[in-house]
Design brief:
The protein is α/β, with parallel strands linked by helices. It has a single domain, classed as Rossmann fold (3-Layer(aba) Sandwich), CATH 3.40.50. It has a 10-stranded mixed β-sheet with strand order 5-3-4-7-6-10-11-12-13-14, sandwiched between helices. It has a two-stranded antiparallel ribbon with strand order 1-2. A hairpin with a 6-residue loop joins strand 3 and strand 4. The relative contact order is 0.14. It comes from Prunella fulvescens (Brown accentor).
């Protein structure tokens, strides 16, 4: 059953995963400086009766950051907290990992969009984990998250990193380009973290969760790793391919291509699946995607019709009135169908390029060619908005 909670205008219901596995999640923070890592980990888990479920918005500070970054009105944070503060994600919090014999679970590093944070893509991360992936949803520390924090070595202290807009007088490209490079480096550091764990390195989680990262040692296949992201995270995923050859492919959800410098396009060495919404992309952004598809015959560009940019986030599952209050728009396609199309296209692409011989995701290969109801090849574009 869907987990839901009362909110302004109706019910919020994040869907459970549709794959064969139950899904667990935990939070991981490594290191006592902002050069460390912070992520939410989604993974196949053993079923537990009455298992606790994590909050969708993990702490009140995130409501303040979200109100500021998304609405430009921090005073709305209390209302936002009332609306969604008690909503939960339909996964098992700190649930026991379901063991998997060799070769282990494939890994996805996930990068969030501008003004988001690690939990706002719980629907897509849960869905992928239910099909047998370990998904590490990063919370970036480049001032692009709605807010985030790290814990200095002094016991009990926290240092928060607020969302930052482009400083007055500074060109947006240079500001965002610096951020996207930091984000891609964080994706690479996350991969190194899991490579170390798979190799037997002991990694302390300074959040002291009741979940031991060492259980991943014999259950993770770090030779089958993809990078994925939405919007600013989509272009982050593309750049991560340039920075790290161990990433076998990338899935870019409605990628915001603007921050990537032109000279790097010829350097992208692996295939990318671009899954766009109907109302976000610009001709310039589409042209940049086509530069990559013209260089690599395995790169694909598809568009999910009837969708807007926010439909690839958990916001799609907010009630209409609340969603309209925050964003002023929503797509016409049912969000559950949009999630199914997006996840199935991604799974088909991941099977092909991670060489997941034991899986049956190839049944959805037609989506990669833009064949099917509510999906189109190439990339129609509308007005850009972030």
């Amino acid at each position: 059953p869907r987990v839901s909670c009362r909110s302004m205008g109706g019910m919020l219901a994040l869907p459970p995963g549709q794959g064969p596995h139950q899904v667990g999640c935990t939070d991981v923070m490594v290191g006592h400086t902002r050069q460390g890592l912070f992520l939410r980990l989604f993974y196949p888990c053993l079923a537990r009766a009455g298992a606790p479920q994590p909050l969708w918005v993990p702490r009140p500070e995130y409501c303040g950051g979200l109100a500021d970054a998304t609405l430009g009105r921090r005073w709305c944070s209390a209302l936002l907290g009332i609306a969604v503060g008690s909503c939960k994600v339909p996964v098992s919090w700190n649930g026991p990992l379901q063991p998997r014999s060799s070769p282990g679970y494939p890994l996805i590093i996930f990068s969030h969009g501008l003004g988001a944070f690690r939990t706002l893509y719980s629907a897509i991360c849960t869905e992928l984990a239910s099909w047998g992936f370990v998904v590490a949803a990063l919370e970036h520390r480049d001032h692009s998250a709605a807010t985030t924090y790290f814990c200095p070595a002094e016991a009990g202290t926290e240092e928060w990193i607020p969302f930052q807009r482009v400083p007055r007088g500074q060109k947006e490209f240079y500001f965002r380009n610096k951020q996207v490079h930091q984000r891609a480096r964080e994706c690479v550091r996350a991969l190194r973290l899991f490579q170390g764990i798979a190799g037997g390195t002991s990694v302390p989680n300074i959040l002291h969760q009741d979940w031991d990262l060492s259980v991943l040692k014999d259950n993770l296949d770090v030779t089958k790793v993809a990078v994925m992201g939405h919007s600013f995270g989509g272009v982050t995923a593309v750049l991560a391919l340039v920075k790290e050859p161990s990433f076998r492919c990338a899935v870019a959800l409605d990628a915001w291509m603007f921050p990537l410098e032109n000279l790097l396009y010829p350097e992208v060495p692996k295939p990318v699946l671009f899954i766009n919404t109907e109302k976000f992309q610009t001709p310039e952004s589409v042209a940049r995607m086509k530069r990559l598809s013209s260089r690599d015959s395995q790169t694909r560009i598809v568009t999910v019709l009837g969708t807007v940019h926010e439909d690839q986030t958990d916001f799609a599952f907010l009630p209409g009135k609340l969603l309209s209050l925050i964003f002023g728009r929503r797509g016409t396609l049912d969000p559950h169908k949009a999630l199914a199309i997006t996840s199935r296209a991604a799974l088909a692409f991941l099977q092909r390029h991670l060489k997941l011989q034991e899986e049956q995701f190839g049944q959805w290969d037609e989506l990669l060619e833009g064949i099917g109801d509510s999906v189109a090849p190439d990339a129609p574009f509308g007005r850009s908005h972030l």
